[in-house]
């Protein structure tokens, strides 16, 4: 139970979060949803509860930050190539010996146009692979390092099925519904929801923890909502509690417990105008979320 809590636009609110359940914080933009999640995070952390807070801003997004580097499996893959081809593992890094000397491992050349926007072109030497041409002569199970990096996580899971250290991370990425991402896909191309689920993949074996997420459905196709809900259900069965900020009505309607902030945004928000189950909401006189629930 959270009694008489305040933060930013939220003032003197009291509410509860059921354990081992999916709680959805909903409401109009600027009504205090993020502030409420902040209160939950701070209070639980101070009480000694293990809190896993996953926002859309916590994963570094740079041109060199990719799925394979985030999963920390690139080293294992480079060593496999090195052992098979009897060469240095550094040769299969586009940040070390294998780096294309022309683009410095970026795959592109940025041309400074001075009074115009910079122009970016594919590197002519490596054709965007980021590697020295001679690196492509080495193969593991018939595939070059460039072939492997071009695989989706689902394809790589099959390709490396006999490599447990690599398989574990790839399995987790598939479990959170991101099996379609390529191993070398830059995190700058991912939506906020995809970034959150990539981070979530590292915390799938927790027990007794509280997960706090900010719009995990962002960027998701409707058909993938069921996959996300199945993932939440799996985490809850392990004894975890999940709290999400969400606008997606299909996801809101599947929550075990709802907290609606409002009634408006900014100075017109900051209040909790409803708490309860979806059934309770449908029988209430709520005028903001209720009319739009499926």
Care to describe what's here?
The protein has 294 residues and is of the alpha/beta class. The strands form three sheets. A six-stranded mixed sheet has the order 4-7-8-3-9-10, sandwiched between helices. Strands 1-2 form a two-stranded antiparallel sheet. A hairpin with a 7-residue loop joins β5 (108-111) and β6 (119-122). It has two domains: 2-58 and 191-292, P-loop containing nucleotide triphosphate hydrolases (Rossmann fold), CATH 3.40.50.300; 67-185, ABC transporter ATPase like fold. The chain has helices at 33-46, 67-70, 74-85, 145-149, 153-159, 164-175, 192-200, 222-237, 249-252, 278-282, and strands spanning 2-7, 10-15, 22-27, 51-54, 108-111, 119-122, 210-214, 241-245, 257-262, 271-276. The protein is built from ten helices and ten strands. Helix content is 30%, strand content 18%. The longest helix is centred in the last third of the chain and has 16 residues, at 222-237. The mean pLDDT is 89. It is elongated. α5 (153-159) runs antiparallel to α6 (164-175).
Summarize this, please?
Helix content is 30%, strand content 18%.
Essential attributes:
DNA damage, Rossmann fold, Excinuclease ATPase subunit, alpha/beta, 6-stranded mixed sheet, 294 residues, ABC transporter ATPase like fold, DNA repair, 30% helix, two-stranded antiparallel ribbon, 10 helices, ABC_transporter-like_ATP-bd, 2 domains
Helix/strand layout:
Layout: E1 2-7, E2 10-15, E3 22-27, H1 33-46, E4 51-54, H2 67-70, H3 74-85, E5 108-111, E6 119-122, H4 145-149, H5 153-159, H6 164-175, H7 192-200, E7 210-214, H8 222-237, E8 241-245, H9 249-252, E9 257-262, E10 271-276, H10 278-282
Parallel strand pairs: 3-8, 3-9, 4-7, 7-8
Antiparallel strand pairs: 1-2, 5-6, 9-10
Helix pairs in contact: 5-6
């Amino acid at each position: 139970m959270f009694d008489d809590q305040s933060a930013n636009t939220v003032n003197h609110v009291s509410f509860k979060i059921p354990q081992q359940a999916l709680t959805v914080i909903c409401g109009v933009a600027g009504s205090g949803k993020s502030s409420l999640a902040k209160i939950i995070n701070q209070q639980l952390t101070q009480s000694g509860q293990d809190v896993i807070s996953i926002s859309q801003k916590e994963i570094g997004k740079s041109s060199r930050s990719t799925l394979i580097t985030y999963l920390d499996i690139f080293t294992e893959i480079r060593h496999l190539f090195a052992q098979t081809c009897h060469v240095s593992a550094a040769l299969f890094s586009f940040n070390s010996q294998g780096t294309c000397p022309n683009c410095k491992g970026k795959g592109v050349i940025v041309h400074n146009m001075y009074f115009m926007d910079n122009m970016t072109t594919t590197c002519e030497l490596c054709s965007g692979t980021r590697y020295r041409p001679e690196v492509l002569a080495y193969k593991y199970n018939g595939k070059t390092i460039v072939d492997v990096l071009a695989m989706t996580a689902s394809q790589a899971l099959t390709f490396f099925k006999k490599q447990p250290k690599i398989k574990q991370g790839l399995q987790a990425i598939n479990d959170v519904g991101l099996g379609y991402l390529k191993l070398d896909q830059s995190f700058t191309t991912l939506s906020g929801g995809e970034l959150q689920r990539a981070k979530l993949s590292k915390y799938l074996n927790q027990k007794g923890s509280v997960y706090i997420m900010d719009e995990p459905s962002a960027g998701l196709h409707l058909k993938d909502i069921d996959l996300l809900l199945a993932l939440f259900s799996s985490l809850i069965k392990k004894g975890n509690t999940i709290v999400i900020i969400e606008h997606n009505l299909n996801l809101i309607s599947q929550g075990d417990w709802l907290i609606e902030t409002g009634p408006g945004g900014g100075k017109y928000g900051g209040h909790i105008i409803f708490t309860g189950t979806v059934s309770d909401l449908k029988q209430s006189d709520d005028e903001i979320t209720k009319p739009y629930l499926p």
